[in-house]
Fold this sequence. Notes:
single chain, two-stranded parallel ribbon
Amino acid sequence: MKCLYKLLIVSVVVCGVCFGAVEPLLAQSAPVKIGFIDLQQVINASEEGRKAQEAIQQKADEYKAQADQIKAKIDMLTEDLKKQMDADALTPAARAEKQDEISKLELDYNRFVNDSREELGKAEQRALQQLLEDIGKLVVEYGQQNGYSVILEAGNILYGADNIEITADVIALYNSRKEQ
Length: 180
């Protein structure tokens, strides 16, 4: 029991000495200024982000139109084959030829759809990477100019007071820089 009291007293003394030594260091350091930013909101609300999204959507619409044309041709050939088979108007060789043509078109369609998805994914990644690079540089510059110690991404924050959110400021700055 005596040993426990000695340990407690030594601990209190050590803590007191540590806090006594740390307090002057904390008093001398500059105040910490923290901000946070919602990157997804910057991407969605900025002019550059909207332009990138519109370009990707336009490309997606073009791919969809091309895929729809191929699909319509497949449907037309399939319906035509069905009618000719019902009317017994095809020889077995002609039927096999038409089925092969439809199969080839279906294969082309599936390849086109997969290639289109892959290309859109890559385009989206490139655009996102460029946006994040631009925004990252801007945030660093903004933080340095405004005396921030730390700027965090909102997705990793459980709580942040509204007065330290700088998303709107960064969007306005980003838009003004891209207009020049």
